[in-house]
Design brief:
The chain is an alpha/beta fold and 171 residues long. It has seven helices and six strands; from the N terminus they run ααβαβαβαβαββα. The protein has helices at residues 2-33, 37-40, 48-56, 73-88, 106-116, 127-133, 160-170; strands at residues 44-46, 62-68, 95-101, 122-125, 140-144, 150-155. Strands 1-4-3-2-5-6 form a six-stranded mixed beta sheet, with helices on both faces. The longest helix has 32 residues, at 2-33.
């Protein structure tokens, strides 16, 4: 009698175990082989309000805004410096780097991100951003310190050494 009860119990739960195993394997495969959600979305379109909220969310941390466009040769020149900088200073270090693209052509921006292998978050902003920060030329680097104050506004190509000096200055 006890053996029969055990067989019925195992019979009832065997399909449940098999289903659980199937779902676990399927979920792992989907996670490992599916494209990363951020990989599909190379950049986000943002307003000046969105960027303000983003900056405010990092109170007590340093924020760097790299303003660029895909058609700007000096911007392309400095892109590798920002890729390396972001690799060496991940967000967990208290330093947040964001690319702010002024591109009108979204496909050009997407191709630029791929070509330059940008590894940091990129936002595509419009005229409201340009007006608010009075962008006159690109590339431009805007630095927000831990208190939330704009402390640096630099026009021109930023070297990796300069980026590291800025971070050390405001840590």
């Amino acid at each position: 009698m006890e053996n029969t009860l055990k067989n019925r119990f195992l019979f009832f739960f065997r399909p449940a175990r098999q289903l659980a195993l199937f779902l676990a394997v399927f979920s792992a495969a989907m996670f490992l082989f599916a494209p990363h959600p951020l990989a599909a979305e190379k950049f986000k379109t943002a307003s000046i309000d969105d960027i303000g909220t983003l900056i405010e969310s990092h109170e007590g941390e340093i924020v760097l805004l790299n303003i660029f466009a895909s058609w700007c040769p000096p911007c392309a020149q400095e892109a590798n410096n920002f890729v390396r900088f972001y690799h060496d200073n991940p967000p967990s270090s208290g330093v947040h780097l964001y690319g702010i693209s002024l591109d009108d052509n979204k496909s050009d921006l997407s191709a630029f991100i791929d070509r330059k292998k940008l590894n940091f978050p990129v936002y595509n902003c419009g005229q409201d951003f340009v007006d608010f920060f009075e962008i006159q030329s690109i590339p431009t680097l805007i630095v927000i310190d831990r208190a939330g104050s704009l402390v640096e506004y630099r026009i021109g190509v930023a070297s990796l050494k300069e980026l590291n000096q800025i971070v050390e200055k405001y840590k």
